[in-house]
């Protein structure tokens, strides 16, 4: 059996074998849209596990951004071009952006050394805020680098829960522990003889909003009471 962490690992594993079962403990990608399974209820084939509503989470981050900064019009979206899930995700973000009267500006980052260049481009393009894709390149240890660059240029930025913990202004996404615990369930079932294609892909049910008030205050960003009341955690 193979356990694939993230969509890039899943794509690599799927291209390497058509017979070995693959478990995805938690992916923000839509495996159906990517053609990796037939459906969530009955995957067919060799892939199963759990997914975390990645496109919906990215759209929700846009809504939160607009709640905090109603006057925002142009939003930079940090994306990894190697992540195949961004195409379907961006389509859903565009739907949300139209209703929120936001213009999206996707900026590709393929390596840590590109962060300075991308942030310089954001300044030149006069973006109002940043939304960060769920991808390993934007996770630790790079989350703190992104948070520092955003703070230095006084950008409102929203990403994963870990991003807020690393010094970003807002984090919204799944609670990390549960999907990985459930990953062990899938491994156990398959080792006991179940076929991965018969095990429905589970969807995350718990999400968390984290507000880093320390950073918000330092940047002069006023977090509305309506957003604070929805927060699961506030970092002071």
Task: Set down the secondary structure blueprint.
Blueprint: E1 2-3, H1 7-16, E2 22-27, E3 47-51, H2 54-68, E4 74-79, H3 86-100, E5 103-108, H4 115-125, E6 129-132, H5 142-152, E7 156-159, H6 161-165, E8 170-174, H7 177-191, E9 202-203, E10 207-212, H8 213-218, H9 225-228, E11 233-235
Parallel strand pairs: 1-2, 2-3, 3-9, 4-5, 4-6, 6-7, 7-8, 10-11
Antiparallel strand pairs: 8-10
Helix pairs in contact: 2-3
Task: Describe this entry's structure for a reader.
With 236 residues, the chain is α/β, with parallel strands linked by helices. The protein has two domains: 83 residues, 3-Layer(aba) Sandwich (Rossmann fold), CATH 3.40.50; 148 residues, Rossmann fold (3-Layer(aba) Sandwich), CATH 3.40.50. The protein contains nine helices and eleven strands. The strands form two sheets. It has a seven-stranded mixed beta sheet with strand order 5-4-6-7-8-10-11, sandwiched between helices. Helix 2 runs parallel beside helix 3.
What characteristics describe this protein?
236 residues; Rossmann fold; alpha/beta; 7-stranded mixed β-sheet; 4-stranded parallel β-sheet; 21% strand
pLDDT < 50 stretches? none
| Biggest sheet overview | 7 strands, mixed
Give the CATH topology of the largest domain.
Answer: Rossmann fold
Strand content: 15-25%
- Strand line-up of the largest beta sheet: 5-4-6-7-8-10-11
Q: What's the end-to-end separation, in Å?
A: 43 Å
> Structural class, from helix and strand content?
alpha/beta
Count of the domains: 2
Average pLDDT reading = 91
CATH class of the largest domain: Alpha Beta
